[in-house]
Design goal:
about 575 residues, mainly alpha, single chain, two-stranded antiparallel sheet
Length: about 575
């Protein structure tokens, strides 16, 4: 087969493994991705209050730090058995290392996982993709809608997808370079094992659903039965089993097996069949891949494949073998009832790598359109930056750390020269256009942090009720809480909390009791003075009440009932 001969500016020729070297300096590409990542994912990272499921990831992590139980996650005093604990471990470690229990510390593992994926795509992609291909693949991944949203949250997806993407990146690079044995399987096996600790084994179906067709097309099926693959797969299982075996022993009586079986059933089609809930999954899943999903037609473009084949026929074989598995995996997941759009996200990095292989051969009209799209986007960013002082008053800017200050300074210093470069440049190259797009999106994220996030803070729901409780509760005293389900505002409370399901289980010496409005009747039956409880109102959510009891009350034991029938 023909072998590509990308020439390096440092050492012409090929690498020691016969793999193509890149024209773009790898160190420069790594540095560029780091700066792009910092501009996109760090601005305003700690500004928004907890969103979506973040509380379910953060509160168990804090409970691990408080109790020392790192095996079974606990949420509001109850075991949380639905997910493996990798995200909880990482958040707890971040809180411990940074020394602060903040949104920024909780979200740091997610953004670092995204950085690791971006750097991996550059490093591995530079070994086998066309010049600048690794950089382009990293840009396609980091600037997709899914990563812009999920990568800034303390959620499972950022870490789970990053680990799966790292497995894809190393395997595809090794296969393209005709490597075998442990070089082909070891690192992907470790990444897949860590992915199992993050969300379970579902990503294995997506990973093998892509690589097995590649091995079949290249007549290398024997690799699946090689000792290196079997050993690497066993290593992935051992990584998961190191936690799962003691966990299921400890949580057997808590119903962990039933919870996991239910989760697996829902993921395998046990969800809703209502068209109104099911059909919107398709456009939502497609939107996760924007804007780069619009380029996937290049996988079938004859001219692009011929140009790629003239350089390396093995890469054409890869694109032709993997393109349909990617599409089938995406569509197949979406037609399963109960499967959510985010389940397709592990396919994004693999799709970005395939795009980076064919995009350099896009026709000139397409390059010109891309160039003008970048200019339009940069124009919008400049308008937003110029209007930000009128959108948000200076006093509303959040400058609680050096990161927030760096955003303000970076936006002021970098946007003008970046805009001039984009508007004046005439030559159109895919790697350069990808860099332009990344800079435009980075500028947009900085404007978002400056102009949009302060306005979003005005609509906070969790911080206000937590502020009311912190102001009303006596310092140094525990808060006894009657739980009514998951409530993320507990993250913002400054006192220790003791959770109970029923008023009957609250200690007799409790002085401060928090309970939902729905529990008022039961609370009154035990504490008649509950009518004087402080009402804590929430915007559009169920209210809570704070009952403060006299300290003297807890010192007197309850009188025992007389069961003798004499009345004495």
């Amino acid at each position: 087969m023909a072998q590509t001969q990308w020439i390096s500016v440092e050492s012409p020729g090929k690498s020691s493994h016969g793999c193509p070297l890149i024209l773009m300096n790898r160190t420069a590409a790594l540095a560029a991705i780091f700066l792009i990542w910092a501009a996109i994912f760090l601005p305003g990272l700690g500004s928004p209050e907890l969103k979506g499921e973040e509380g379910r990831r953060i509160l168990p992590a804090l409970a691990m730090l408080d109790t020392g139980n790192w095996l079974v996650p606990y949420l509001n005093g109850e075991p949380y058995l639905r997910k493996p604990p990798m995200i909880n471990w990482l958040i707890a470690a971040s809180v411990e290392v940074t020394g602060e229990r903040s949104e920024r510390a909780a979200r740091l593992p997610s953004v670092l996982a995204v950085l690791a994926l971006g750097l991996t795509l550059v490093w591995t992609g530079s070994r086998w993709l066309p010049p600048g291909g690794g950089f382009t693949a990293a840009v396609f991944t980091l600037t997709s809608v899914a990563f812009l949203e999920k990568g800034r949250l303390a959620e499972i997806e950022a870490i789970y997808v990053s680990l799966t993407g790292i497995a894809f990146a190393f395997w595809l690079a090794a296969w393209a370079c005709r490597e075998s044995g442990w070089r082909l399987w070891l690192i992907p096996g470790i990444a897949l094992g860590l992915g199992m600790l993050t969300k379970g084994p579902s990503h294995l179906l997506l990973f093998y659903g892509v690589i097995i067709p590649v091995l079949i097309a290249s007549r290398e099926k024997r690799q699946l039965w090689s000792p290196a693959h079997l050993g690497s797969f066993a290593l992935a299982l051992l990584i998961f089993a190191a936690w799962a075996v003691p966990y299921f022993r400890a949580a057997a009586e808590m119903g962990a097996g039933e919870v996991w079986a239910s989760q697996a059933g829902n993921a395998a089609g046990g969800g809703s069949l209502k068209l109104g809930e099911w059909l919107p999954n398709f456009p939502r899943a497609l939107s996760n891949g924007l804007p780069w999903i619009l380029l996937t037609w290049l996988w079938w473009n004859r001219r692009a494949l011929e140009a790629l084949g003239a350089r390396d026929e093995r890469l054409v074989q890869l694109v032709r073998a993997a393109r349909w598995p990617l599409v089938i995996g995406f569509v197949g997941l979406m037609i399963i009832p109960g499967v959510l759009p985010r389940y397709t996200l592990p396919l994004v990095p693999a799709g970005a790598l395939l795009l980076a292989a064919v995009v350099p051969f896009i026709a000139l009209p397409g390059l010109k359109f891309w160039q003008w799209a970048n200019r339009v986007l940069m124009g919008v960013v400049l308008v937003g930056a110029a209007a930000s002082p009128w959108i948000v008053k200076p006093a509303a800017f959040r400058t609680e750390s050096w990161l927030d200050v760096a955003v303000l300074v970076g936006a002021a210093l970098l946007l003008p020269p970046t805009a001039i470069w984009i508007f004046r440049r005439r030559e159109a190259k895919t790697s350069t256009l990808a860099a332009e797009s990344a800079l435009c999106i980075a500028g947009a994220m900085m404007v978002y942090a400056i102009a949009v996030l302060p306005r979003m803070d005005l609509r906070d729901d969790l911080r206000p009720i937590a502020k009311q409780i912190n102001a009303a509760v006596s310092a140094g005293q525990p808060l006894h809480v009657i739980t009514s389900g998951y409530e993320p505002f507990f993250f913002y409370l400054e006192m220790p909390c003791i959770f109970q399901k029923s008023p009957k289980k609250i200690a007799d010496n409790a002085e401060q009791i928090l309970f939902p409005a729905g529990a008022m009747k039961k609370v009154k039956s035990r504490w008649p003075e509950a009518s004087d409880a402080i009402r804590l109102e929430r915007r559009g959510k169920k209210d809570f009440f704070l009952l403060k009891l006299s300290p003297e009350r807890g010192k007197n034991p309850r009188p025992k009932r007389d069961h003798s029938g004499t009345g004495a």
